[in-house]
Design goal:
The chain is α/β, with parallel strands linked by helices and 509 residues long. Helices cover 45% and strands 9% of the residues.
């Protein structure tokens, strides 16, 4: 029998260093074949991720030669001694729907989840603990498929630990006291865009991305949150911007707006958002021009605006988020605005859902995304597109606007209202739209992983349509998709929905 180190070295020579897994977190994840069932393989000595039948055969031969037990992933027969587990399974394919083969949840399943506390971020940690320590809903007990599609897993060779299923199992281990907050575990839990796409083909009321946010709060309370997010909190407190951008840069676009009148009080408060103002200033300008064209009575907070705190909320810094939110709401109240409108999907999601559910902070007015307000203005006749636009486009649903807020139709209705504009829907759209990889702090935490996800969206979903432009409604999606298209040579023009509206209005003048 060779030494363990000698065996591991031999395996690495076959499949590569990164594909032989021996960390406690990896062994724990791979010991399960199902999230809500007991461990199937509790005695794994190593996991080997193989990429071909040839590699799998070599690993099996080595194990047999050394008198070891080698079992393949998915085996329902537990081993009686330590084993080498071979992971040669194909990753879930989002393009293949499995909904037709799955049993739909019953009304009792839904009631069971709500009794456990699901539906609010404040109670979700309790609900998750209930799921893991007790019996889950009946559908989860009966389902034989339990490996969610993950936006970022392909960046890690689809190793299960870095997948949505893997993160869920790591949280299970924490909830049951079977794992501790190691550096790797924290790294895995922050390498997530919290897009909510992971279990799109699963029991849709079981939104486990919420549990990741709750677990990040736990990590923060232990003083173990990544330092970059603590720096973001400091920058937001001091400069009103996560990256510390000066306010003069944030407002530079206003110089291009003729006769910009900003009364102290107005019916509509235009919340630009720090990312829109600094990274996509043309979008900020477009919104103001559209509001002016429709003769909307609006104002802005200008240098007092600050940051909504989306990145703090998503990365677990809830105390800092609460302080920031209370100050922000006070400023909004002073404007007496009846409507707050923003072109930022993250700001919209924060104000509309994260503030009341996570922080117990209520906005003093109606909150609309700019696409929602523009849709109203079109219906009311305040915006008319007589000239039209000769343009072929498709639309990318931002996760914060789509899956998390169910805002799908307003952007599409606007595009369809513009004469001569040809709109093509991507096969993966609406609730099943692929994430660009920018949200949840991932764009800051691991930019390359974020851009890999954006490349998948551009290359697999957008390029085959041969459109003139990809339209989105989120500055982070805009930024990530734009930079990725340049860096990875996917020649796709990225525009915001409000830039399209502005162009259509200019053609009509």
């Amino acid at each position: 029998m060779p030494s363990r180190n000698s065996l591991i070295d031999s395996l690495k020579r076959i499949v590569g260093v990164n594909n032989v897994l021996t960390d406690a977190e990896d062994l724990y994840v791979y010991s399960f074949e199902h999230i809500f069932r007991e461990q199937q393989h509790p005695r794994i000595d190593a996991v080997v991720k193989t990429r071909s039948a040839e590699e799998t055969e070599k690993v099996v031969k080595l194990a047999n030669k050394e008198g070891l037990t080698a079992i393949r992933r998915g085996s329902l027969k537990p081993a009686k001694s330590k084993v080498i587990l071979i992971d040669d399974t194909a990753p879930p394919d989002l393009t293949v729907s499995t909904k037709e083969t799955k049993k739909k949840p019953t009304a009792e399943d839904i009631r069971e989840i709500h009794r456990a506390g699901h539906g609010t971020f404040r109670n979700f940690a309790l609900a998750l603990k209930t799921f893991f320590l007790n019996q889950p809903a009946s559908q989860c007990q009966e389902c034989l498929t339990c490996s969610g599609y993950c936006t970022v897993a392909p960046s890690f060779n689809n190793i299960e630990t870095w997948s949505s299923k893997g993160r869920t199992l790591l949280m299970r281990g924490l909830a049951k006291g079977e794992l501790t907050l190691s550096k790797k575990l924290i790294d895995v839990l922050y390498t997530c865009s919290t897009c909510g796409l992971c279990f799109a083909e699963c029991f849709q009321d079981l939104k486990l991305h919420e549990a990741i946010i709750a677990t990040r709060r736990h990590i923060t309370e232990k003083g173990l949150a990544p330092e970059m997010f603590r720096l973001s909190a400091k920058n937001i407190s001091e400069n009103g911007d996560p990256s510390g951008m000066p306010i003069n840069r944030r407002l530079s676009w206003t110089q291009k707006i003729p006769k910009l009148s900003l009364p102290k009080k107005a019916e509509v408060l235009y919340w630009v958002g720090c990312m829109t103002g600094t990274r996509t200033p043309n979008v900020a300008k477009a919104v103001a021009n559209v509001l002016n064209h429709a003769k909307v009575d609006f104002t802005m907070l200008s240098e007092r605006e600050g940051c909504c705190g989306y990145v703090l909320l998503k990365t677990g810094l809830w105390d800092e988020s609460k302080n920031n939110a209370v100050k922000l709401v006070k400023l909004v109240k002073e404007t007496k605005a009846e409507i707050l409108v923003t072109p930022c999907a993250g700001c919209y999601h924060a104000f509309n859902t994260l503030y009341p559910e996570m922080l117990d902070v209520q906005m003093p007015c109606e909150v609309l995304h700019s696409s929602q307000l523009a849709e109203r203005l079109v219906k009311d006749g305040a915006l008319e597109f007589e000239g039209g636009l000769s343009l072929k486009v498709t639309y990318h649903d931002p996760c914060s606007l789509g899956r998390h807020e169910n805002v799908y139709d307003p952007p599409r209705n606007i595009l369809k209202a513009i004469p001569n504009l040809q709109f093509f829907e991507m096969p993966l759209s609406r609730s099943r739209a692929r994430c660009c990889g920018g949200g949840g702090g991932l764009w800051t935490f691991k930019n390359e992983v974020s851009m890999n996800s954006a490349w998948t969206r551009l290359a697999n979903d957008v390029a085959p349509l041969d459109v003139d432009a990809l339209v989105t409604a989120c500055p982070l999606c805009h930024l990530n998709l734009h930079f990725t298209s340049i860096k990875k040579s996917v020649p796709t023009k990225i525009v915001d929905i409000m830039e399209v509206v502005e162009s259509a209005l200019q053609k009509s003048d």
